[in-house]
Amino acid sequence: MAISALEHDTLAKACAISKQLLLDIQPKLAVLAQIYDSAGGLKETLTQADLDELAALSGLTKAEADGGLYALTTVALPAIITGYTALAKLAARTL
Known about the structure:
With about 100 residues, the chain is mainly α. The protein has 5 helices and no strands.
């Protein structure tokens, strides 16, 4: 039985996203994790006053910033690393 258009499109998107995750996003998350989690890093030094000082970040709480950074550095990055083999196999394909 032939693959459906929906299945093809889904797999094509998965391959493209996997490639982007491994080539672009994972390295950026690794640097972000290092900057955020290191001794004296942003986790320790960033304050609510720092956030309020920038108009684009005004209204964002320290807890919200920490929560987002935690999700990126402690949830997303390890998930990419754990799934690396499967992601690499998808990333190697082009549909």
